[in-house]
Amino acid sequence: MLFKIALKNLLGARLRTFLNVLVTAFSFFLILFMSAMYDGMLQHAKQVTMDTEIAGGAYWHPEYDPLDPLTFEDAHSVPPAAVQALVGEKKAFPVLVSQASIYPGGRIMPAIMKGIPPGQNIVNMPTDALSGHEEIALPVLIGKGMASDTKLEVGDVFTIRWLDADRTYDANEGTVVHIMDTENFKLDMGHIWIPLNKAQAMLAMEGEATYVTYEKGVPPVQNKRDWIPRDINYLVQDMEAIIEADKPGAQVMYMVLLALAAMGIFNAQVLSIFRRGREIGTLMAIGMTRSRVVGLFTLEGGLNAVLSAVVTLIVFGPILWYFGVYGIPLPIDYSEMGMIVAKRLIPVYTLGLVVSTTILVSIIVLIVSYIPSRRIARMKPTDALRGKVVA
Amino acid sequence: MENNSVITINNLVKRFPVGGDFFTALKNIDLTLNKGEFTGLVGPSGSGKTTLLNIIGGLDSPTEGQISVLGHALNDTSHSKRALLRREHMGFIFQSYNLLPVYTVFENVELPLILNKVDSQKREEKVNQAIEWVGLSNKRDSRPAMLSGGECQRTAIARAIVHQPALVLADEPTANLDAENSHHIMKILSNLNQEMSTSFIFATHDEKIMAYLRRIIHLDDGQITEDEKIENPKASA
Fold this sequence. Notes:
The complex is a heterodimer of chains A (391) and B (237). Chain A has 391 residues and is α+β, with helices and mostly antiparallel strands.
């Protein structure tokens, strides 16, 4: 019975309902969109890291610590035979890591020099740009961020100095053969990439590597000596830790949006109760109990949420779909700021997000509908009939 | 006669807090109203007519004294039981109609039946009958904003009588109407009183209403000053 009356009230109020529903639907849309953008950003960062850097996982030299460049000096050896076999089957590729100093335009800059097989196609890097430069002593691949920092362009020659296996400093001229546009700042900032065979020769580390990255789906090898297997879960844990650390920020954003939606509904509900004092009195006079009137107004609020969800789907659904497919181009290249952010951000609408947002918004709408409706329970029918509503 | 009584009031007092003091709106009211009476509470503004009507309707409580309506002692009755009493056995007519603006005439009249959980087929039947009584069959799908004052009040009357209550309380039902509409409304109510044996109590100071009443209770300064029985009202249905 209450449902029928509430629905009638809601549909009968036309403009008032339209405005309430539109405000709630807009909040609904904003919450969904912003959360989906955030999820999309994080998923993209994880995906980019996997595509361009991690692939299926890696075997690390026991001394290798990517966060401590001082370990690079000792973190090299010939990979275990089983790992080398993967390389031979083109299911993996080795990388040799070393510290270096570069001198672009006469300035000195520290760099991480990585030797990578130009023909690898396991990670999404334009390493093939390093092949076929017989006339060049040392072809070098750098990222856009590095190019910007060093002011290097394709064809520029600069000096590279390194410490080889015999602990002797050596130097050569490197030529920039390609500037890659990658979203993974970890491949870009402070990095120079050279062909693996050149790196092994320069460092006097023939056949050696610091780590070996293998493609997805490769089962773990048995004979790996003391090399350490690092699977995807391990390699993305930094990224997941960043995501986890960022969660409170996302939750605050979520709460702010929800609070805005709740305030809008609360205001509309309070206004509605003030405006409808006489109606409340009439309902009481014709025999509706106070608790039922409270229930009626709360139910109206709840139906408001349901209608808002429907309106969000109909009105804002196409917008959400459009952005979900085509994304939103970002005006700034965030990779230069040390962030993995897509140039075109694509929101990800997971079922969990849609369901949890719907449930949460509905609960909040019910609560903010109920709180002002409680005033009705304190109202004297005679006051309500005169349109006098308790503050 | 005692078994026939619809309302029994003994020594009723109603005080309202005003500032730090109290204003006594009703003083020592003793009153009995019987089934089928067509009664008016008559008096100037501030005489206590609406307050008494509200107490009879269970919308307000007396400060002192006893009141029994349709066999229920309202002093000892909870808010929800009073609401149930109103829902099942009473009808209200207000000066400013108090129709729900988003409902059509049909829906406004239907509301008490929905509250009384009458099934939809019976509801439609009764609503159509009530609308026909008040002569609004051609307006059943109109909203209050599209009706004249007289039509709004007739809708309110239909709503008050649709569930055939034992008692209808009308607070200044003709105050916002012109003479022609007032007479029309009173004729309808007088007819209903005779056809349905429903008791009617009016709070009014409108001479046009008084011409139809068969009992006039004069109130002044919160007290009954005269209780007048009229055998042959000046106007009749």
